[in-house]
Amino acid sequence: MANHVITRETNRIHVVLDHGQNRKPSLNASFPLEDTLAEEGHLPLKRCLEELEGLVGLSKIKAFIHEIYAWLEMNRRRTAAGLTTEGQVLHMVFEGNPGTGKTTVARIMARMLKEMGILSKGHLVEVERADLVGEYIGHTAQKTREHVKRAMGGILFIDEAYALSRGGEKDFGKEAIDTLVKSMEDHKDDFVLILAGYPLEMKRFLRSNPGLPSRFPIHLQFSDFTIDELMKISECMVEKRQYRLSSAAKETLRRQLLKEMAEEVQTFGNARYVRNVVEHAIRQQAVRLLHCRQVSKEDLMILRAEDLHIPGKKENSTVYSWYN
What residues does each domain of the chain span? Predict the structure, then answer.
């Protein structure tokens, strides 16, 4: 394991990347160094990479994380060879709609950076505007510093970060931004800050704060999932819970997803929506089976088309609420 730990003096690599939609992914089917990691006994890092590979879609994101991993590994080898290495800036902006994997990727990335010696703890602290902004002068700075302190050694993940600049000049959100900037300067090697949110809002947010873009050199775009990817995600969710979708249920789910994707372009929840549908179907199956005298193991596992009936928003709006 020691061979894969980069010292605090040599682990700084300055990253200036903008992984947009036009960039072609460079990731192969699997990480080429996974076998080497297993041979050298660095299984925690190998498991992080395997977990990342197990995610549906996200090819550009996987390619970027592979680049970071490879870059840090080559930095270690350069140091061993007596060559110079550069500084590191790993603060990031995650742009994407709800349910596209931003938080999941951030959690894996935190553990990976910990295993590579960049972060000391590798945990993820998730916050939003309400967690940072106070009610009076000075309160916001105090709250923000407390969350930065919690994130030391890991990643501070601010969801819907653009909300910090929505209140105008007199809003305390600006105080939170200023406190974050100062913390990035004072503790530049102690934590990673990720700002996340809807693509358009994040772009406006960065444009309205001229000092921010240069502090976040890494921009990752999380695309909406395709219908085939959503179907694969649904099957993974169902199998993980030890259920199965019948053929008719799969057809029903596919039609429902296509309909929702077309009607709710701006607010469609991607994997979150799929999770809501799956969990609703499980509850519907339970109600259906409750009235049966005899229930086999197969009955307990199969989700039928009738279990996937999705009430209209006026019938039951709770089905459309998203999980945090």
Answer: 2-222, 227-320
| pLDDT per residue as tens digits for the range 95-154 | 999 999 999 999 999 998 898 888 999 999 999 999 999 988 889 999 999 999 999 999
Mean pLDDT confidence for 208-212: 82
pTM: 0.78
Centre a 10 Å sphere on the Cβ of residue 239 and count the other Cβ atoms it contains: 11
Q: What band does 162 get if pLDDT is binned at 50, 70 and 90?
A: very high
**Gap between the Cα atoms of 129 and 113, Å rounded:** 26
CB neighbour class for 175 (10 Å; exposed up to 12, middle 13-18, buried from 19):
buried
Sorted by sequence, the CB contacts under 8 Å of residue 47 that are 6+ apart come out as none
Contact present, 92 and 194 (Cβ < 8 Å): yes
Could you give the CA distance from residue 104 to residue 157 in angstroms, rounded to a whole number?
11
* Architecture (CATH level 2) of domain 2-222: 3-Layer(aba) Sandwich (3.40)
Q: Which one, of 76, 71, 63, 78, lies nearest residue 31 by Cα?
A: 63
CATH second-level architecture of 227-320?
Orthogonal Bundle (1.10)
Q: Do 215 and 91 form a contact (C-beta atoms < 8 A)?
A: yes
